C-alpha cells in the first residue's frame, strides 16, 4: 500500500502538469497552422479568432501581426484556443474537428483539446452567451492577410511540413486564394454544372480533372484520411475551401478515393449520403444496424462493421460525430475504447451525424 501511495504521489502531479501545460512543439504546430490559414481568403476559423482577439484586446495593437506569431505570446495563444472553443460551441468533439480542419498533426490535436477543455470548462456558459452577442455585430472573416516578410519562410514551411522554398510556398497560398476567389466568382453558374461524382471515379490524372473543372478550381496538396490524419500522399482538391470541397486520391488501377468532410455540399454522392446526414438515414440505407468505434478514442466514430448490410463491401467509409455532448453520463456510454452499435439507446439524444465519408472506386 505504501508503495502504491508513493507511486501515486509521484505520478499525480505529472498528470496534472500534462493537462495544464502544452509542449512547445504542439504550441508551434497550432501557431503555424493558424498563421497559414490566416493567409487564406474568407477563412472562417481564423477570421473568427482574429476578430475576437481584436475586440477583447488579447491580440494587442496589431492583431494581424499577432495571428502570425501566436507561439510567441502565451496570452494571445491561450485566448485563440478559448475563442476557437467558443467558435466550436464549447463542444469538445466539434473543437477537435476544427483543429483537424486547421490541419494540425494528430499528436497535437488531443493534447490541445484536453488542455482547452480543462482550462475553459467552467466558462462554457459565459462563452456561449458572449458568442450570441458577438454574432449580432460580426460581419464575417477578414482574412487573406500577407505575413510579415521575416515570417514568410517559417509559416509556409511548417504549414505544409516540407522543405520547399519560400517562392513555392507563396505560390501554394496564392493558388488556394485564387481558387477561392475564382470559385466565388463562378458561383452564379455553379448550379448549372453537373455535380455527379461518377465521372471523377474514372479519372486517372490531373489533366482530366483540370479539363472537367478548370485549373482555377483544382489544387494539389497533402492528402488526409477520413479522420483527418495525413496519408503521406498527394491529393487533388476540387473547389478548395468551399462547401463543395472534394479531395481525390488517385491510386492508378486501384481506383480513386473521394473524401467529403464538409456539410451542404452540392455533389451527388453515392447512395445519397453526405456529411451532416443523421445516423437514422445511414442505418436505413444500410438496411440494418452497424457498429462503430467509441468517440474520443483512436479512430473515433469510425464505422468498423456494416454487419453485412447494403453498404458492406461497397467501398464506403464513414466517421460519425455527436453534436450534443452536454450530458457527460450519457456521452460517456459511447466514448472510449469500445465498439458501439448504431441502435444503442444512448445515441438517440446525442444527435449523431456523419462527420466525413469516403468512397473508393472498385
Short summary:
This protein has 362 residues and is an alpha+beta fold. The protein has helices at residues 2-20, 24-38, 44-56, 63-67, 74-87, 92-102, 106-120, 124-137, 152-160, 166-185, 187-190, 198-201, 206-213, 279-286, 328-331, and strands at residues 218-224, 230-238, 246-250, 256-260, 291-293, 303-305, 316-322, 339-341, 352-360.
Topology of this protein?
Layout: H1 2-20, H2 24-38, H3 44-56, H4 63-67, H5 74-87, H6 92-102, H7 106-120, H8 124-137, H9 152-160, H10 166-185, H11 187-190, H12 198-201, H13 206-213, E1 218-224, E2 230-238, E3 246-250, E4 256-260, H14 279-286, E5 291-293, E6 303-305, E7 316-322, H15 328-331, E8 339-341, E9 352-360
Antiparallel strand pairs: 1-2, 2-3, 3-4, 4-9, 5-6, 5-8, 7-9
